[in-house]
Amino acid sequence: MSDNISNDVVISNGAMKGATTGASIGARFGPQGIAIGAAIGGIVGFIFDD
């Protein structure tokens, strides 16, 4: 089984992991926290993706 989340070249695996983590952390602040956390997490995950 592959360790990749997605084989699509549009969204990197780091961005997906960052968005998921950001949304999980932002969930304690409500719907706006989920959206902002996912956006920031996705951007940071994309930047730090190896």
Could you please describe the fold and organization of this structure?
It is a single chain. With 50 residues, the chain is mainly alpha-helical. Helix content is 64%, strand content 0%. Helix 1 runs antiparallel to helix 2. The radius of gyration is 11 Å and the shape is elongated. The chain starts with 12 loop residues before the first helix and ends with a helix. The model has no long low-confidence stretch (mean pLDDT 84).
Quickly list its features.
50 residues, mainly alpha
SSE order, as H and E? HH
Average pLDDT:
84
How big is the Rg? 11 Å
Give the overall silhouette: elongated
Largest sheet: none
- Figure out the total of helices: 2
Strand % is under 5%
How many strands appear in the DSSP assignment? 0
Task: Look at the helices and sheets and give the structural class.
Answer: mainly alpha
CA distance, first residue to last residue: 21 Å
Low-pLDDT parts are: none
Which bin fits the share of residues in helices?
A: 55-70%
The oligomeric state is single chain
